[in-house]
Amino acid sequence: MSSSIQTVGVIGAGVIGASWTALFLAKGLKVIVTDPAPGAEAKLRDYLQEYCSEVPNATVAPGACLKNYTFVEDIEPYLGSLDLIQENGPERLDFKSRLFAQLDAKTPPHILIASSSSGLPSSEFVTGCSNNPSRILIGHPFNPPHLVPLVEVVPHPGTSRDYVTGAYKFYKSLDKEPVVVNQETPGFIANRLQAAICAEAYSLVSRGIVSAEDLDKTVTSGLGLRWALTGPIMTNTLGGGGDFTYFMDHLGPALKSWLDDMAMNQFDLGSEEQVNGLKKNVNGWISQVDLKKVEGNRDLLLANLVKSKLDQTANQ
Amino acid sequence: MSSSIQTVGVIGAGVIGASWTALFLAKGLKVIVTDPAPGAEAKLRDYLQEYCSEVPNATVAPGACLKNYTFVEDIEPYLGSLDLIQENGPERLDFKSRLFAQLDAKTPPHILIASSSSGLPSSEFVTGCSNNPSRILIGHPFNPPHLVPLVEVVPHPGTSRDYVTGAYKFYKSLDKEPVVVNQETPGFIANRLQAAICAEAYSLVSRGIVSAEDLDKTVTSGLGLRWALTGPIMTNTLGGGGDFTYFMDHLGPALKSWLDDMAMNQFDLGSEEQVNGLKKNVNGWISQVDLKKVEGNRDLLLANLVKSKLDQTANQ
Predict the structure, then answer these.
(1) Structure confidence at residue B109 (pLDDT)
(2) 3-hydroxyacyl-CoA dehydrogenase NAD binding domain: which residues (chains A, B) (predicted)?
């Protein structure tokens, strides 16, 4: 793939596609964007007007961003002039298979095509690609992409290593933090880790051991504060006085005993009764919360936190 | 319990006890502290000199903090004059049982006695308390207590509700975020949630799906950034457009499919071979990392983040 990417094609301008567009523009790229939904063009303009200014360490002023994109009804005539595609269409296999066959056929064969798919692995939808499927992979962002640095780069078995490296470098050049998922695995990495914590959270709340509100507080006032800065493995290591082996030898048995107890008290997502009980419990709390305020507060602190981390890295 | 707490007894001045002492002093309390370890008094002084200044929203200047504590060889003569005890002794049942029998016998019967125990539930070590065991509970902090707001308040079955409320109010008055764990459960809340994520992290890294470094990055650049600000349940709710029921109905099946796959690929903490392989894998990364720098960077951003959250709450 080319190392100089200037024009990105964004396919699908829903929540994820619009946020990618804001990021690309704020980092100095030109964007050709398309979405067949009624009113998509106006919605995108509103979104960009509001959110381009939020991108941490933007290199282009918000006003200028708005001049650097073109919304098109049909992207096909533009496919030959793109340097990279970020696809954000619906998570339907038939849809993505058709779309990727078209994209692969109509774009220059060397350009990277990344899908934001959170569920479908690309091996399932490249089956109709005969031009160069080795340049197709998943670039799964974390919502909203213009703020949260994580991108999971997931090749399919036929993706070339060069494109994995190319995707890594491209996202990194936008101040994203790409991670490489070596094998397609259900839920990739982030959704699995999230499922792990949610399953135990649902169990603790359902069993009445802690309220839903306090469960969340346990994370936002403790675990999550650490995990924003050091991951689970580094947190273990620092907890072991800088020694992961020490941690495992001394805390492994306790960890195992907790996991055994958790296994005996698992929440059953397949049980309608348990799920309904949980919904009722959670909704009793959520109904008293001003969600707009929660979200606004989160976005403000999130942008500051991402910026602080970027600045800390830049100064070292 | 008395609502006006002025003098706190801190028993055990290791990492946790010293950090509690820094917090209590920076928030204007007087502290009587004891620890039988050789050199404990000098170590504590060094710790307080370095860390009292780190406490977010301190009400007492670091220099003044150092005048408000007394290190004593034997705390027994002081027990009658304390308003609250925070105990941080070794996690050994025989030790804690003896200690709590003494504390319960020699303190005024109305004062709260909290243990920082992370493992032993207090029901196990109040068996020798005949004065007033209903004022004994766990107040389990998250390391380091002078920075991380979380305190798990865990009553034993005989703890009076008044003391649970009292502990909650006391910690809250220090800008901590107490959560109430309604029943003694192995690992309380935080360690269970942490075990959940670690188990899947170990599995993914051991299976070669992601490197240890990228596993951690998935958390620090994505999940953890969110969890520092909104917990798992609120994150679900916002992900469902403000509706937890919608989230469960639409994403529950995917969640279940990931959990099923995770169950089939569980890491076995009881397998020496798997544990050794994981240690080798993780140590290959950690050996290249400057841990002092990681820790320093974390503490700096952690203090800023805690302060930003306190300020945001105060301004609303």
Answers:
(1) 96
(2) 7-182
List the Cα angle B230/B235/B239 in 5-degree steps: 145
Chain A residues inside the 8 Å CB shell of B208: 182-183
Which of A181, A256, A304 is nearest residue B210 as measured by Cβ atoms?
A181
Share of residues in chain A with pLDDT > 70 (%) = 99
DSSP one-letter code for B289: S
Enumerate the H helices of chain A as residue ranges. Answer: 15-26, 40-51, 62-65, 93-106, 122-125, 161-173, 190-206, 212-218, 224-227, 232-239, 244-264, 272-286, 291-314
- Mean of the pLDDT values across residues A150-176? 97
From chain B, pick out residues whose CB is under 8 angstroms from the CB of A90.
Answer: none
Q: Which of B219, B278, B286, B307 to mutate to test the interface with A (most CBs of A within 10 A)?
A: B219
Write down the pLDDT at residue B143.
87
C-alpha to C-alpha distance for A102 and A79, rounded to whole angstroms: 10
With an 8 Å Cβ cutoff, are A305 and B275 in contact? Answer: no
Mean pLDDT along residues A179-206: 97
Cis peptide before B253 (omega within 30 of 0): no
**Residue B23 main-chain phi, psi, to 5 deg:** -65, -50
Asked about B152 being catalytic, the answer comes back as: yes
Are the Cβ atoms of A259 and B227 closer than 8 angstroms? no
Do the beta carbons of residue A262 and residue B196 sit within 8 Å? yes
Cis peptide before B90 (omega within 30 of 0): no
| pLDDT above 70 (res A2) | no
Which conformational region is residue B38 in: left (phi greater than 0), alpha (psi within -120 to 50 degrees), or beta? Answer: beta
DSSP state of B14: S
pLDDT in tens, B128-164: 999 999 999 999 999 889 999 999 999 999 999 999 9
What is the radius of gyration, based on Cα positions, of chain B? 22
Active-site pick, B50, B87, B152, B200: B152
Mean pLDDT, rounded, for B70-99: 96
